[in-house]
Amino acid sequence: MSRRSGILEFAVLGLLRESPMHGYELRKRLNTSLGVFRAFSYGTLYPCLKTLVTNGWLIEESSAGPAGAPAAPLSGRRAKIVYRLTAEGKEHFEDLLSQTGPDAYEDEHFAARFAFFGQTSRDVRMRVLEGRRSRLEERLEKMRLSFARTRERLDDYTLELQRHGMESVEREVRWLNELIESERAGRDQRRPDPEGAAQQDTSGETGGLPRNRDSTRPDPSDDTAT
């Protein structure tokens, strides 16, 4: 599985954990809610859905009939097929949520992971945020060294572009610092889970977004931070 297809599967499972949807609804949510998927097509989504169904993580239902009614093939009337998360799919998604390996710190994967922080335990959120911050601090140091070595040989526009890149990374590091501080302070501004009950952290503690966030905070899916 490629890294990008793995991110897409994670996002689809997360969205369907909130509620069943058909392909059009899923694509719309992926386009509008998760910036990392702004430019993907049905040709990418439907093979992913088919794989998840084959793995037993989703089931297909016909929106024209009762729940559990046989669905048309994936290649047929797609808008009439509703996808629902199975118990195995929910368990698999929760397992993915608990993973905090290096991939979780990369630009695209971090954006998808952050979108589902409301369903993620506090200790995992902290590890992902701290890992992302460490990764960006390493990137920023390399950018500064490169800028210092090449600034005498570059024209003003190229230099300005490099400054813009560094400033974008610096803004995200500051944003991450605020989030980490807020998590440590134990503030919780999360919404209830899709089943109506307040989502509980496995640690027994709560965390949340910093209060009074302003419009200068970077979007974690913003590719200017790459």
TrEMBL record:
Superkingdom of the source species: Bacteria
Would the keyword Cytoplasm turn up in this protein's UniProt record? no
Coiled-coil region list: 126-153
The UniProt annotation puts the region (Disordered) at 182-226
Q: Which InterPro entries match?
A: Metal_resp_DNA-bind_regulator, Tscrpt_reg_PadR_N, WH-like_DNA-bd_sf, WH_DNA-bd_sf
Q: Where is the Transcription regulator PadR N-terminal domain?
A: 12-94
Q: Which UniProt keywords apply?
A: Coiled coil
Residue spans of biased composition, Basic and acidic residues class:
182-194, 211-220
Please give the PANTHER family that the UniProt record associates with this protein: CONSERVED PROTEIN, PADR-FAMILY TRANSCRIPTIONAL REGULATOR
Task: State what protein this is by name.
Answer: Helix-turn-helix transcriptional regulator
